[in-house]
Amino acid sequence: xxxxxxxxxxxxxxxxxxxxxxxxxxxxxxxxxxxxxxxxxxxxxxxxxxxxxxxxxxxxxxxxxxxxxxxxxxxxxxxxxxxxxxxxxxxxxxxxxxxxxxxxxxxxxxxxxxxxxxxxxxxxxxxxxxxxxxxxxxxxxxx
Length: 143
Known about the structure:
By secondary structure, the chain is mostly helical. It has a single domain (11-135), classed as Winged helix-like DNA-binding domain superfamily/Winged helix DNA-binding domain (Arc Repressor Mutant, subunit A), CATH 1.10.10.10. Helix content is 57%, strand content 7%. It has helices at residues 11-19, 22-33, 39-43, 51-63, 85-88, 91-104, 111-118, 120-135; strands at residues 67-71, 79-83. A hairpin with a 7-residue loop joins strand 1 and strand 2. The longest helix is centred in the C-terminal third of the chain and has 16 residues, at 120-135. 14% of the residues are buried.
């Protein structure tokens, strides 16, 4: 895992130091909008992330407090990843990227984008509540 080197005091540059990698954003997308939460789940995403890159980005996200891992209650050699409050705070950013991308994307608009178009604030609130509930569940932490 590469160490983050901050290039300037600019808030955008600071944010990009953590989030300026497409794989980081796609992992966050999967954690926010899907039920994906394990290494294997992320490997099965359409974008086909390489195993070494996935392992590195998960370590990066965890080391910087965006996600936490815990041992799966069903399988002791499997880790489950969840967003932390810091990660949950990124939901509006990811939502805006999704809305912008769907505006210029030639693919069919996803249901979540339609839902955001009708009630963006309510949808963000529902996502935050759902993900916060995962944080507060009784799944043991691996920290």
